[in-house]
Amino acid sequence: MHPWVIGPQLIQISKNSQPRCVWGCLAQGTLASLHKKEQIMAFNNKYDPKTLDDLVIDKNNLQILRLMTSQLIKDHLLLEGANGTGKSTITDLLPKLTHGQNYQVENIKAHEDFVIDKDVLLCWENFCGLARAQGDAAYIVIDEIDTIKKNHALFWQWLDTRRGTVTVIGTTNRLMAVPKAMRSRMKCLTFKPVKTIAMLPRAREIMKAENLVVNDNYLLSELTAVQSFGDIRKYMERLELVAVALRMGAIDSQGYQVAPSPRLLTRVK
Questions:
Q1: What is the pTM of this model?
Q2: Domains in the chain: boundaries
Q3: What is the pLDDT of residue 35?
Q4: Of the four, 114, 163, 172, 268, which is 20 to 30 A from 198 by CA?
Q5: How far apart are alpha carbons 142 and 168 in whole angstroms?
């Protein structure tokens, strides 16, 4: 038996009514329980993008990334946007799609009091040299690049001399906090908060992969419940709850039939 069951009172939804989120959150611990006890992989991990087509991003940004993976554009990248808009996913995906297994990455957390100095540049030189000797492409990924507080000139001067031998990818939530000289030397891509309608095609693909049939209007209503975050992770968590609710019989594929009130959900002892 599933560890979460429905209480005795049910809500009948008219087939003529608009789809709505009547089942609410199954329970705060539902997904965590499934992941831990039943060893079910979270949707955020299970459906982590494997190709550019899996990304939920603006078409212009997608086109630029396609050109980069085909190596028709070779440039440093600056990815700007709120949390959950796909920046970290792209920093992981881009080297793989461009070079297969033949790449090496140096990951930097700039917010951890990272300071660029001559010793850092020497380490980067050695890293790039080692990658080149092994026939690999070299990538330096700098998370929260806007938090680098010193020696910006040293950094962008180094970028000028290493174009073509290393690709630097920076991420930021605050584009204008990145010094202008650095911004001018990197191709800037802005990722806006993800809208429900943009997430819908990906949501359909995921439900299909789960062998679940869900009415589009109902799926939109569920995604809209977390649209204010504009965060792909939140959408994925919501989709996972919908999948659990379908399998438990809390909702049908149209999202109309019977569903529990959140207070009626009880834990099996």
A1: 0.79
A2: 4-48+194-267, 58-191
A3: 59
A4: 172
A5: 8
Q: Is the pLDDT of residue 31 over 80?
A: no
The tokens for 39 are 């060893």
Distances from the Cα of 221 to the Cαs of 19, 211, 232, 255, in angstroms?
Answer: 7, 20, 16, 10
CATH architecture of 58-191: 3-Layer(aba) Sandwich (3.40)
Give 63-104 as a 3 state SS string. Answer: HHHHHHHCCCCCCCEEEEECCCCCHHHHHHHHHHHHHCCCEE
Q: Give the integer Cα–Cα distance in Å for 65 and 169.
A: 12
Whole-number percent of the chain with pLDDT over 90: 57
Quickly list DSSP for the chain: --SEEE-S--B---TTSPP---S--S-TTHHHHHHHHS-PPPHHHHT---SGGG----HHHHHHHHHHHTTS----EEEEE-TTSSHHHHHHHHHHHHHTT-EEEEEEETTTT----HHHHHHHHHHHHHHHHTT-EEEEEEETGGG--S-HHHHHHHHHHHBTTBEEEEEES-GGGS-HHHHTTSEEEEEPPPPHHHHHHHHHHHHHHTT----HHHHHHHHHTTGGG--HHHHHHHHHHHHHHHHHTSS-TTS-S-B--GGGEEE--
Pairing of strands 4-6, 167-172: unpaired
The torsion angle over the Cα atoms of residues 204, 208, 213 and 217, rounded to 10 degrees, is 0
Q: Per-residue pLDDT tens for 135-182?
A: 999 999 999 999 998 888 898 888 888 877 899 999 999 999 999 999
Query: Looking only at Cα atoms, what is the longest distance across the chain?
Result: 70
